[in-house]
Design goal:
- With 65 residues, the chain is mainly beta.
- The chain has no helices and six strands.
- Strands 1, 2, 3, 4, 5 and 6 form a six-stranded mixed beta sheet that branches.
- A hairpin with a 2-residue loop joins strand 5 and strand 6 (59-64).
- The N and C termini lie far apart (26 Å).
- The model has no long low-confidence stretch (mean pLDDT 81).
């Protein structure tokens, strides 16, 4: 499992970007939210300062500011 923490997320649902976490399991997004709990074996990626946009025809991109 992978948890991308503290990134600015543009999810296409909320009108404004928000700071949060993305939990990924088996290559699929399992959860998006603030302060998600991750298990001890979860790889943590700190996305502080990054902008994350996903879900555009199954693709995604990341912009590192």
């Amino acid at each position: 499992m992978l948890c991308v923490k503290n990134g600015m997320i543009h999810d296409g649902i909320h009108p404004e970007a928000f700071r949060g976490d993305i939990l990924v399991e088996d290559g699929k997004i399992k959860a998006i939210g603030e302060n998600l709990e991750a298990g001890e074996e979860t790889e943590i990626v700190d996305a502080q300062g990054a902008v994350r946009v996903s879900g555009i025809r199954g693709g995604s991109w990341t912009y590192w500011a």
